[in-house]
């Protein structure tokens, strides 16, 4: 704490030789006039000084005053020492305060005058203080005509009053107050102190001092432009103005509240600057932008620059929308912890690259209307790729409203879905490029796809569309109303799907269905198919699948499937090192299928038999799970056959037996060993 120099409590006047002006006199006037101006003997301005003021034997006097004075100083012989204008010590700090001084006999007539005219208009009576000599006059003893600046007293100015002083003003400066002397109560509401006049320093090493205005402008708040956030007011124009103010890019803050945007469907927020925009809130459930339009449930459209959103909720109307997309972007983006609720379409992107991290789609947090045509996220572009990570798309079982899809991938150069839960959509993930469109490098990993009302993953390109290089790793596709995974190559092309460590369980259809001649290079490596009403894996209508190390059957907390592995005669399946057990039928595959080293499937067997003496044939049970071809049965004689060798009757091979014959009746028992294989087993 530091102190300040105090002026002398009692002033002393001296002549030019430094001798006190004993018996000298001082006259005080309004500056540049000879109009007397009052001064006082005390700080409370209650006891008037005489005019003139006579100095004591030491040339001293106590003079209190307000504002500026013309001061004349004389010695005891009435010689003028000086004539100067002076002011009180706060004279430079008076703001717009002025004195209107009226003297008895010239400015008013005691006992008669009831009105005085001010030289300066106060604006209101609250900006006036009236004194008769040193006596303060309360506002109920007078009135002000603001238009004419005339003060009218309830009764004439009393006889004996020598001076009427009326102070007028609305502001006063206080200089540099002592530490702690300016408190909240000292400052009026809406005082209008400019932030450009206040300084701020972060306090850390190397921190520089700047104005509070500069500091506050680091982030623009939508409330700076008049947004209310009361859930009723249309805040579209205010938020758009806030966005427009960031023409060079920057950060926009959305405080806690519900801000109504595009209430009628014709005023969607737009970011069209060629600069980055970042919009942040106080939390997805606290800072909410909401549209009430059911015809166009859209909130924000980004067409230029780049855009980031974090900790914000985007809500559609409380009545199910029939069109619109809450957030549409054609530019690169990053969305973090954004909730998309009550949407027709939640998000639609056609950018080059994008990231959605920790975003929510559906009605898990806000149980509101959603239509059977609703889609959480639509991907249609992204040559550089889009990534969904740590996302949740969930619709509870009640009310029973099933949106069309959680994530719909129509076109992209790369799309990654990781560490996410997508639950109870129509199709949890729908991949359906149309003519001329391609979905490349779709990767789904460590993700839970559950309880879809059709398929947990549905890959179904239209005619002329193609899906290439799809990868699934550590994905669970369970409890769907139809298939866990449905890959349809009947129309467009599906080339290359690699599924690793998949769990596809408890589905009302098949665990995995692959159908259509344009579905090829489908690889299933490891994983389980348990408790499905249909097959664990089903291959149909010319499709092609390779399985390695797959388990299909009962276990892992569930029962078996109708078929462990099913393949129709027009399709191709290759199974290696797989296991099928506990199914109604473990393997239902054609002879053309390749099944090698698979538990539950006998693809190689050996034995011995004999054509009896005088006989010409013997029926042998080969014990294979499939039907061997003639070339897959080898006979090795154990005795000399001479000119009567044993051979396989190719017309007699069935799913369970084959017949060994000799040309003529055997003379003695013709013993032989046999080895039979099927389904590609060597």
State the gist of this model.
The protein has 682 residues and is an all-beta fold.
Radius of gyration: 48 Å
The proportion of residues in beta strands is 35-45%
Specify the CATH homologous superfamily of the largest domain: Single-stranded right-handed beta-helix, Pectin lyase-like
Instruction: Give the structural class.
Output: mainly beta
Number of strands: 57
CATH domain class of the largest domain: Mainly Beta
Overall spatial form: rod-shaped
Helix content: under 10%
- Unreliable runs: none
Main beta sheet strand tally, sense and closure: 13 strands, parallel
Instruction: Look at the structure and give the mean pLDDT.
Output: 90
Total helical segments: 2
CATH topology of the largest domain: Pectate Lyase C-like
Strand order of the largest sheet: 20-23-25-27-30-33-36-38-40-42-44-47-50
Q: Which CATH architecture of the largest domain is right?
A: 3 Solenoid
User: Terminal Cα separation, in Å?
Assistant: 98 Å
What is the number of domains?
4
Chain oligomer state = single chain
What are the key terms here?
682 residues, mainly beta, Pectate Lyase C-like, 4 domains, 13-stranded parallel beta sheet, 8-stranded parallel barrel, 43% strand, rod-shaped
């Amino acid at each position: 704490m530091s102190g300040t120099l105090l002026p002398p409590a009692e002033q002393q006047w001296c002549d030019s030789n430094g001798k006190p002006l004993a018996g000298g006199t001082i006259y005080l006037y309004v500056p540049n006039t000879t109009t007397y101006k009052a001064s006082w003997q005390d700080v409370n301005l209650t006891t008037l000084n005489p005019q003139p003021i006579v100095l004591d034997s030491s040339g001293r006097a106590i003079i209190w005053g307000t504002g500026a004075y013309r001061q004349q100083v004389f010695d005891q012989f009435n010689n003028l020492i000086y004539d100067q204008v002076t002011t009180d010590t706060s004279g430079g700090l008076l703001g717009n305060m002025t004195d209107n001084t009226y003297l008895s006999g010239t400015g008013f007539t005691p006992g008669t005058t009831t009105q005085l005219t001010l030289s300066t208009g106060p604006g209101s009576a609250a900006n006036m203080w009236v004194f008769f000599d040193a006596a303060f006059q309360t506002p109920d003893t007078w009135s002000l005509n603001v238009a004419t600046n005339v003060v009218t007293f309830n009764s004439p100015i009393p006889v004996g009053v020598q001076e009427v002083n009326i102070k007028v003003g609305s502001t006063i400066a206080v200089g540099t107050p002592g530490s702690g002397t300016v408190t909240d109560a000292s400052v009026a509401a809406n005082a209008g102190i400019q932030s450009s006049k206040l300084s701020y320093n972060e306090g850390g090493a190397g921190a520089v001092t700047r104005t509070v205005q500069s500091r506050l402008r680091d982030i623009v708040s939508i409330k700076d432009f008049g947004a209310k956030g009361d859930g009723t007011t249309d805040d579209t124009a205010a938020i758009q103005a806030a966005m427009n103010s960031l023409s060079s890019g920057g950060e926009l803050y959305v405080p806690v509240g519900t801000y109504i945007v595009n209430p009628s469907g014709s005023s969607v927020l737009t970011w069209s600057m060629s600069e980055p925009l970042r919009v942040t809130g106080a939390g997805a459930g606290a800072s909410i932008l909401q549209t009430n339009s059911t015809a166009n449930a859209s909130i924000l459209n980004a067409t230029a620059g780049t855009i980031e959103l974090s900790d914000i909720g985007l809500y559609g109307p409380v009545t199910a929308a029939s069109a619109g997309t809450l957030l549409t972007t054609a530019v690169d983006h990053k969305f973090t912890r954004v909730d998309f609720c009550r949407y027709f379409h939640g998000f639609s992107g056609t950018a080059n690259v994008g990231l959605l991290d920790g975003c929510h789609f559906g009605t898990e947090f806000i149980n509101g209307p959603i239509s059977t045509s609703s889609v959480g996220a639509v991907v249609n572009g992204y040559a550089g790729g889009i990534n969904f990570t740590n996302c949740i798309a969930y619709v509870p079982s009640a009310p029973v409203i099933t949106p069309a899809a959680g994530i719909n991938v129509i076109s992209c150069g790369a799309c990654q879905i990781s560490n996410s839960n997508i639950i109870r959509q129509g199709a949890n993930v729908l991949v359906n490029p149309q003519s001329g469109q391609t979905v490349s490098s779709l990767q789904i990993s460590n993700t839970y796809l559950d309880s879809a009302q059709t398929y947990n993953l549905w890959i179904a390109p239209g005619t002329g569309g193609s899906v290439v290089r799809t990868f699934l790793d550590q994905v669970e596709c369970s409890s769907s109303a139809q298939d866990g995974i449905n890959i349809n190559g009947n129309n467009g092309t599906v080339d290359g799907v690699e599924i690793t460590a998949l769990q596809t369980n408890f589905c009302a259809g098949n665990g995995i269905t692959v159908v259509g001649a344009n579905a090829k290079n489908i690889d299933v490596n490891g994983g389980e198919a348990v408790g499905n009403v249909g097959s664990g894996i089903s291959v149909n209508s010319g499709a092609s699948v390779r399985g390695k190390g797959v388990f299909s059957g009962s276990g892992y907390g569930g029962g078996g499937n109708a078929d462990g592995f099913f393949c129709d005669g027009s399709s191709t399946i290759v199974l290696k090192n797989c296991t099928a057990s506990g199914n109604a039928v473990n393997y239902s595959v054609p002879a053309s299928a390749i099944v090698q080293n698979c538990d539950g499937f006998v693809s190689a067997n050996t034995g011995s038999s004999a054509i009896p003496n005088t006989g010409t044939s013997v029926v042998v049970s080969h014990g294979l799970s499939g039907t061997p071809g003639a070339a897959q049965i080898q006979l090795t004689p154990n005795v000399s056959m001479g000119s009567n060798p044993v051979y396989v009757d190719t017309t007699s091979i069935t799913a369970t037996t084959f017949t060994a014959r000799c040309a003529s009746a055997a003379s003695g028992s013709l013993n032989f060993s046999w080895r039979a294989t099927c389904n590609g087993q060597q």
